[in-house]
């Protein structure tokens, strides 16, 4: 048994899986997140840093294709597993020469990281700059399952955007689980905002709410922490401001009006109310409308802001009727 | 050279503490995982540039460690330790940029952009904070600055400069609230496409930079090796560990700062504040 095999055995006991979810994969994703926490493993933020891929739910044809492209470009030793197979990860038999092969690209690059062709156009300051066409999603951590935003970027500023629903349908996991839905949204939002501690607390609360454990006190503590964070408010105020007329133009629910900071505040209030057993806000979210406002909201924002904007609307495409 | 080795050990300790706080596997397991990961690259990547960048980061940290004193002794006997430290830290800019640029990947490139913007925000306040301490001690030698704080630590009577230094220490190691260049929102940013072993080297360099930045805070603002009972080198070590633990702890406790907002605060608030601090120090010292 050589050194390499020993290293591999040592490392295999704490893999770092990359988790991708289909529109109907929310339940699976929550199980995987809880499973990772219980094993003290951490998820990868990109498929490039790991060889273990977890696919949640049942991807439709288009999403399955995107996942295949990402999978073919992941580094070995690779394993592609279902959500219930965390304990039986069996990497493919990558031979030792694979370890030494110096970088011949295997398969295509993932759709999210290939720079592709650059052309040029005037930017907002009238400078002539390269335009990069970059898709955000659908295989991206802490991103709404099944969504893709096709961006034209100059530097890291979005010049134009188009929203595409890659995967949809299956019925929402969240029906009747309003508090848990918003806690999940908050957890992913906080991860996108780079606040790991608060995100972890929100995720634990979400799982406890779903299991019927009491969370009221811990939620209030988390709510205080988030509301008191001047840094978070500073970074989210005035970002992704949706004008009131969007309610009529796009048919989005009224809670979306305002900026990212306001929407997060709204979620916290909503979670509090739902935990008290009272006032579940009427109707569902018209998630298709949430997608339709994204292009105009992210145009002019930088990439970091665009991620926050999408996370603050958090469309659930499982609630959208699948299209042919 | 013992000082450099000690800082290397501290970097590993920082990675271990971070793993405990994150609830994840320790640094050795993660290192093994990265070592056995197959090499793969993006099409048309500039592998040479990316690799130079990945290696430059730990190299810069190690070279900066040469001038860090424990007690009254540093590995390299130089009278311009402050300048040397500052120069090595800026090598980190090139490292992150090369890694981000070399990958031929949009998110990695954006990570590189982010670090350059971050440099524009933190570097001037950082340099003024360094100069303030040097001014008070009439020396650019970190050992002399540490020894000049017999009565009162610089951190106590120049708190603005100390605070700015701590902020810039986080920023130079693109750590915690300044982690946007490697942000999760852009799938790992500049480091996105680094092959496993290169990623290991790069991330090790980041911990090294964090350890060195913590260790330099001690002679600059925390009285160097000064303290009762214990020998000077041990005091330096204890104080370094305290600063390092604080920086590691801060990582998960704060949201990430975006430079489109922070640059303004850095130039409108931090630079005037630290200049004012320098003026006060200059007046006191000349008297």
Automatic annotation (TrEMBL), chain B:
<feature type="transmembrane region" description="Helical">
    <location>
        <begin position="6"/>
        <end position="28"/>
    </location>
</feature>
<keyword id="KW-1133">Transmembrane helix</keyword>
<feature type="transmembrane region" description="Helical">
    <location>
        <begin position="120"/>
        <end position="140"/>
    </location>
</feature>
<comment type="similarity">
    <text>Belongs to the complex I subunit 1 family.</text>
</comment>
<dbReference type="Pfam" id="PF00146">
    <property type="entry name" value="NADHdh"/>
</dbReference>
<feature type="transmembrane region" description="Helical">
    <location>
        <begin position="48"/>
        <end position="70"/>
    </location>
</feature>
<keyword id="KW-0520">NAD</keyword>
<keyword id="KW-0812">Transmembrane</keyword>
<dbReference type="InterPro" id="IPR001694">
    <property type="entry name" value="NADH_UbQ_OxRdtase_su1/FPO"/>
</dbReference>
<feature type="transmembrane region" description="Helical">
    <location>
        <begin position="90"/>
        <end position="113"/>
    </location>
</feature>
<keyword id="KW-0472">Membrane</keyword>
<feature type="transmembrane region" description="Helical">
    <location>
        <begin position="152"/>
        <end position="175"/>
    </location>
</feature>
<feature type="transmembrane region" description="Helical">
    <location>
        <begin position="262"/>
        <end position="286"/>
    </location>
</feature>
<feature type="transmembrane region" description="Helical">
    <location>
        <begin position="207"/>
        <end position="226"/>
    </location>
</feature>
<protein>
    <submittedName>
        <fullName>NADH-quinone oxidoreductase subunit H</fullName>
    </submittedName>
</protein>
<feature type="transmembrane region" description="Helical">
    <location>
        <begin position="232"/>
        <end position="250"/>
    </location>
</feature>
